[in-house]
Amino acid sequence: MAKVQFIKSADVKPWLAELAKEHRVFAPSYDGEALLFRPFDPEQEIVLDRAATMPPKKTIFPQSEKLVDFTYSKDPENLSRIKIDAKANLPEGSTVVFGSRPCDARGFTMFDRVYLSDKNPDIYYQARRKNTLFITLACRTIENTCFCNWVDSDPCDPTGSDVLAIPVNDGYLLESVSEQGEKLLNSKLLADGSSRRAEAEKICQEIAGSINNTKDLTLAPEKLLAVFDNMEFWEEVSAKCLSCGACTYLCPSCYCFNITDETTGMKGKRLRSWDNCMSAQFTMEASGHNPRPTKAHRLKNRVGHKFSYYPTIHGGVISCCGCGRCIKSCPAGIDIREIVLKAIDFVPAAVEE
Amino acid sequence: MKYQQELKDSIRKALPGLDVVIAWSAGYDPLHATPHFIRREEDIDRLEIGPFSVHNLATYLPGLRGKKVGIVVKGCDSRSVIELLQENLINREDVTIFGFPCTGVVDQTKIRKALGHTGKVDFCQIASQTVVIGAGGEEHKLRLSKVLADKCFSCQYPNALISDHFVGEKISPSAQTEGGDDLEAFENMPLPERFAFWQKEMDRCIRCYACRNACPMCVCRDHCLAESRDPHWLSQEDSVRDKWMFQLIHAYHLAGRCTECGECQRACPMDIPLLLLKKKMNKEIKELFQYEAGVDPEATPPLLSFKMEEENIKEREW
Questions:
Q1: In angstroms, how far is CA A137 from the centroid of its own chain?
Q2: pLDDT for A125-154, tens place per residue?
Q3: I need a surface site. Which of A103, A106, B187, B206 has the fewest CB within 10 A?
């Protein structure tokens, strides 16, 4: 049975300050005109009435992280022998993310299927994932770009979260989702919230009712495969694409990376940094051949991966959480929904006999 | 927009001789337009021009080299087309330019700030100087001048400087002074403060390179120093040093070429004020070479030419 607590709006900051004694705490605040998940600072205003510019992706999947430090040393007796000392740099400590949205938290479940496979888990990801807790805020307003309901989610979806906070009249109803989340709800600042449950449920129903009309994406995987070789289709939908990485880097479910060694003299570090399939270098092979030479090939991959290849190997789950950031932040106004629907509706021209 | 029908007719006439015409159409909500590639007669109907026609479509031209391309340009966009011609990055005979008198475009960041959080946007009507936005069940009235892009206030070229078809009557540059001169304020800051300013701003850069890819003059495309490993200019660290280094090299490469269209700043999902840097660079170029990029197709950009002695660079006196 989930633990249900209530917190007054005014107590949110003191509560976060309490949590910050034990964990790194991130909450959305403005940096310039961008709303970002930043380390909790009691001096800063926390903004909870709108979705952040950037999902809290960096908290588990840093933009660039040092995997290994390494040092080369020569054997003085035999200078052609080089010894390499390598030291792994595993993340430590625990993190609480406050104010993520259901789509943001759900995004990491797309990572999990890839990074936490039984056979070969990614130890860096695993270390952070295990120790990062999400206190997710259910949405009270819907934007034009929201489409979580197209991808089997909703504005009160607890999937991937540890605590779900539902904004009620004068505060938030806090429902534990995981065991770790339950432990976060022991503060003296919180009161039993059972009596507010009905109110919270009503709010969730209301907001679910106001969301944009849903579309059936059942056929997306096969229909996208059907247009795979139709480059005319992809050239048309990608014509305005600038091939930048804004969509990918702002996406809560895009998890691709690059590995580079940054070496100075005999010392160096191995980095893992974000990479994106919109970049020309993403598939550039050592020979100079690039299997995705144009932006049409690249956008095809982004859409295809999310709505076709990923669901095909992961039990039908679409690797998109419907947050709409790729639409909102695209400098060219590309709408991924439009492309998927176009592929679903695409009817090949009849071949003339 | 007043001349929209005239523009559509003009495109309709020219389309049979062209592979594509690039214009704008309605975007994902009433506050956004999107670039619109017209290939067929029926695509013309969706064309829309107006204050949301923010994108500089000249960015697409180098990538379409070899095709017959029509392009609709605002005055500022036409300067990018001219600069591309000056640098032989596009062929004049392949490009058909449609101009119209532009009365300014909006700055989406300003709208977002003015509205606050509204949720869903239902409609937007612009009548003379007032913008009425229906959002979150309420009507918000804004003065157009409150949400126009800064570049529009100092705009000297509201009409396309180069065009094959111009619709409507040419207008004179507006004498609006609102918007302020951010460059002057920036220049008045002491040097350590200026550096601290950029360090703070660049900190939130996510290295998506939307600034670079939206820039019509950034033509290295798939061969950018930002990602090159050999030579190894930048590391892949998430450090202000590397991010700032890229912006500086970017700005240097645009010195005397940048037309201040502001696409770098508009494209930035993190709202980093990148145009400020470009403005500073252009000011220096103007002082040194009395040159403004993208106004004369016949002119040679100063950094593409060589003189034994520059008038304003007194090498011998150094």
A1: 15
A2: 999 999 999 999 999 999 999 999 999 999
A3: B187
Burial B57-96 (b: 16+ CB within 10 A, else e): bbbbbbbbeeeebbbbbbbbbbbbbbbbbbbeebeeeebb
Please answer yes or no on whether B208 and A246 come within 8 Å at the CB atom: yes
Domain shared by A242 and A163, yes or no: no
In a domain, residue A205? The reply is yes
ipTM: 0.94
- The domain in which residue A120 lies consists of 4-59+92-210
**CA count, 13 A, side-chain hemisphere, A258:** 20
- Assess if residue A83 is contained within a domain: no
**Average pLDDT score over chain A:** 95
Q: Which helix (H) or strand (E) holds B275?
A: helix B274-289
List the beta bridge partners of residue A166: A173
Residue numbers in chain B where pLDDT is lower than 50: 179
**Using CB atoms, which residue from B28, B203, B212 is nearest to A144?**
B28
Tally the residues of chain B.
318
State the smallest CA–CA distance between residue B285 and chain A in angstroms.
28
Q: Round to whole Å and give the CA distance between A195 and B130.
A: 47
B242, B234 Cβ separation under 8 angstroms: yes
Q: Final residue of a domain: which of A176, A191, A210? A: A210
Length of chain A: 353
